Amino acid sequence: MAQILYTLAKQPNGQNGMSVGYADQVYVNLTNQCDCRCRFCIRGHHDGVGDADTLWHKQDPKLEEIKAAMDAFDFSGRKELVYCGYGEPTCALENLVESARYAKEKYGLRIRVNTNGLGNLYHGRDIVPMLAEVTDSISISLNAPNKEAYMEVTRPRFEDAFEGMLAFTAECAKRIPQVKMTVVDVLPENEIEDSRKLAQSLGVELRVRKFV
Ligand code: SF4
Predict the structure, then answer these.
(1) Which of 7, 92, 118, 127 is deepest in the core (most CB within 10 A)?
(2) Which residues pair with 82 in a beta bridge?
(3) Ligand 1: residues whose CB is within 6 Å?
(4) What is the pLDDT of residues 179-204, one digit of tens each?
(5) Does 31 score more than 80 pLDDT?
(6) Which residues are within 8 A (CB) of 74 and not within 5 positions of it... i.e. 6 or more apart?
């Protein structure tokens, strides 16, 4: 059975060689739905990551199952719940928001969402106010500094995905305390710089992630 919660480091405080950041976090695998087909998606190469053998759900978990997985988990030493699974978490918006609310209230966890930023296009409405009710930080995949490269690498369902992702980011910047865009470090330096400028023009920081 696919794991709903998983970790990248088993022990708190980085004791097994992972950074303290990973050790503080627990990841939530809400859904396998996604509106992109990114060329680099880990789903094409591995069935699971960290301590999860498989992150492929036979059926996406229901809210009660997500809450039960939280109640069965030992959150000692963990500070942050990160919505980042084998799929795009905003595709399961209601379960994301309600389970995040539960985790904040019952376990005092910070909430981070890692997203492709296409949630407003997917739902056909502005979902940022709803996300902002529970989200402390959000990380949006920019992937490339221009539309052509973005469409080529992420292969999204929507023609206006690049513009939609930028508009989503600008809305997040107004309502969510910490907003970052990300690219991976395999981009050439000039594209990383262009990405940084683009992120700054939307009022957010760029984080350059290591490619795994
Ligand atoms: S948005 Fe994420 S889950 Fe979806 S295809 Fe891209 S990398 Fe994979």
Answers:
(1) 118
(2) 27, 112
(3) 34, 36-38, 41, 43, 87-88, 116, 154
(4) 999 999 999 999 999 999 999 999 99
(5) yes
(6) none
